[in-house]
Design a protein that fits this description.
The complex is a heterodimer of chains A (279) and B (273). Chain A is of the alpha/beta class and 279 residues long. Chain A contains 10 helices and 10 strands. Chain A has 2 domains: 124 residues, D-Maltodextrin-Binding Protein, domain 2 (3-Layer(aba) Sandwich); 104 residues, 3-Layer(aba) Sandwich (D-Maltodextrin-Binding Protein, domain 2), CATH 3.40.190.10. Chain A has a 5-stranded mixed sheet with strand order 2-1-3-10-4. A 5-stranded mixed sheet of chain A has the order 7-6-8-5-9, sandwiched between helices. In chain A, α2 packs antiparallel against α10 and α3 runs parallel beside α4. Chain A is elongated and about 55 Å long. Chain B has 273 residues and is an all-alpha fold. Helices cover 78% and strands 0% of the residues of chain B. In chain B, α5 crosses α7. Classes of the chains: A alpha/beta (279), B mainly alpha (273). The interface between A and B is medium-sized, with 35 and 34 residues.
């Protein structure tokens, strides 16, 4: 065979091998990397880790903030607060953390990852939702204890799941419900979801008979679900704190964001999404 | 033409190329194994609590049971399809073939939502199933549905290749000797295709064991009922990291063992799905 040709083929082979190995080595992510923040934090970019229940309100606030601060970019990572704490504890970079409860903010503080004093910027409360056609006929909180209904709640590690248990305990302490109420309701739990949005979607889809979510999530799904209020006496007011994360790439912008969220126009936006003022 | 003259020069170039080649090959191996090693380093020193916790054991038990049942279902309903696809010509064969492969490339979330649309309470068959007193979502049966949906194609593909590679002359000879078709199938075809059938079953089992997205969407997440190992890992990431690490390492070791076994039983020249 012509030697030039042999060399040419050899060259071609290496080019191919190179292309192949680099193609393979280029991470084809197996895991969802959307939660991973950018490694570099260019000036003007703000990374906010926020509880899943803030998705709608913060997305709108983010757009307003970008308009008010030309050249800045706000990036969100929405997930269960406890999931965000895990991510931050494992070294994820963020500028601001907004939690759906004080417990997870405390957990982050214990890891020495909070740079300033957390400030409560909103409150939320729990409601019971059923599919629009209410297949199990749930008209009062007592009905949650009816044997055989399919109740979807959040896992107790999720703030809303923890609040759900607190509400049940308060109800069980009341004579109208009785001590057995809590156990009877827990018997009906068919799924412990990992965040509040999943609870809402299981009910919106009509797969579950009832679910316990924040009033804000119920508001978002209002056209597909019925809302059953939990009286204030039994309800848990969820406090939403936010703070700058230690090691924030952009602490000054983080402070601006926090002030922005606490400002009256932003509070009006939060109110629109069903949040109560910080009180 | 004398090729020897130019050999040394080409050797030098070859060595440089080979070094580069090996470096890249090494990078890939490191890239793929490092996370697994890191996982093992964190999980191995964990105490008995993590390995034997209620969550770990319940998830392990549920996963083994559902993956095994899903694999048996795939065997039962996948074998005839694989045989037909390997042997017969029929209208729409390409279409059926493609449809069966489809779940392998679909994102599990798509599988999950599609299963809900079909078998959910509001799904296509939901009212019919309800009429029969069957409600699938949030049950262990839903887990098996999800796992079978995403994993069965691995068996069908492998079995199809296996049946296709069996020497037809041996079957014809068996028929000439007056042996019934069914007997021929079980005495001649199946044993000859056995390596492909077994490796297909192993792949199906491994895929079923790792199923996550379709399960969490269609079956929900309840310990002991629908919380399989991948779901327990996901939930545990927040509440019980040790148990999640232990389960993750178990899954890695089991999956590695299965892939290794598949290579051992795979017939030469036959590639897997």
């Amino acid at each position: 065979m012509d030697l030039n040709r042999v060399n040419e083929m050899r060259r071609l082979f290496f080019i191919l091998a190179f292309a192949l190995t680099t193609a393979c080595a280029t991470p084809t992510p197996r895991v969802d990397l959307s939660n991973t923040p950018p490694t570099s934090n260019p000036r003007g970019a703000l990374t906010v880790y926020a509880a899943a229940s803030l998705t709608g309100a913060f997305t709108e606030l983010g757009a307003a903030f970008e308009r008010a601060h030309p050249g800045t970019r706000v990036e969100f990572n929405f997930a269960g607060s406890q999931e965000l704490v895990t991510q931050l504890a494992q070294g994820a970079h963020a500028d601001v953390f907004a939690s759906a409860d004080l417990k997870n903010m405390d957990a982050l503080q214990k890891q020495a990852l909070v740079a300033d004093t957390p400030q409560v910027f909103a409150r939320n409360k729990l409601v019971v939702i059923t599919p629009q056609d209410n297949p199990a006929g749930i008209h009062a909180l007592q009905d949650l204890a009816k044997p055989g209904i399919k109740l979807v709640v959040a896992n107790q590690s999720v703030p809303v799941g923890n609040y759900t248990l607190q509400v049940l305990a308060k109800l069980a302490a009341d004579a109208n419900y009785g001590a057995g109420f809590q156990d009877a309701v827990l018997q009906n739990v068919v799924s412990q979801e990992n965040n509040v949005k999943q609870v809402a979607s299981k009910i919106s889809l009509g797969e579950g008979d009832a679910g316990v979510v924040y009033s804000t999530d119920a508001q978002t799904a209002a056209d597909r679900v019925r809302i059953l209020d939990v009286p204030d006496a039994f309800n848990v007011l969820a406090l939403y704190p936010l703070a700058t994360v230690k090691g924030a790439g952009n602490p000054s912008l983080a402070h601006e964001w926090i002030a922005f969220v606490l400002s009256p126009p932003s509070q009006a936006v939060l109110n629109k999404y069903g949040f109560l003022p910080p009180g | 033409m004398n090729a020897n003259e130019s050999l040394p020069r080409s050797d030098v170039r070859f060595n440089a190329g080979r070094t580069l080649f090996l470096v890249f090959a090494g990078l890939l191996v490191i890239f793929l194994t490092l996370p697994l090693i890191a996982l093992a380093l964190r999980a191995l020193p964990l105490g008995l609590d993590a390995w034997m916790s209620q969550t770990t054991l319940a998830a392990l038990q549920l996963s083994l049971a559902t993956a095994t049942i899903s694999t048996l279902v795939a065997l039962a309903i996948g074998t005839p399809v694989a045989y037909l696809l390997a042997r017969k010509e029929f209208v729409g064969k390409k279409l059926v073939d493609t449809l069966i492969d489809l779940p392998m490339v679909l994102p599990p979330a798509v599988a999950g939502i599609a299963l809900l649309m079909a078998y959910g309470r509001r799904g296509l068959l939901g009212p019919t199933l309800s009429g029969l007193g069957i409600e699938l979502p949030f049950t262990t049966a839903a887990v098996i549905f999800a796992e079978t949906f995403v994993a069965a194609p691995f068996y069908v593909r492998s079995a199809k290749a296996g049946f296709g590679a069996v020497d037809r002359k041996l079957e014809q000879m068996s028929a000439l000797l007056g042996v019934s078709d069914l007997k021929t199938f079980f005495r001649i075809t199946v044993p000859l295709a056995a390596p492909s059938l077994v490796s297909g079953l192993l792949m199906t089992w491994a895929r079923a064991l790792g199923e996550f997205g379709a399960t969490i969407m269609f079956a929900g997440n309840f310990p002991g009922r629908t919380q399989t190992m991948p779901l327990a890992i996901y939930s545990g990431l927040e509440s019980n990291l040790d148990s999640a690490l232990a389960l993750a390492l178990i899954l890695v070791v089991v999956s590695f063992g299965i892939l290794f076994a598949v290579r051992a039983v795979s017939p030469k020249g036959l590639t897997l799905a």
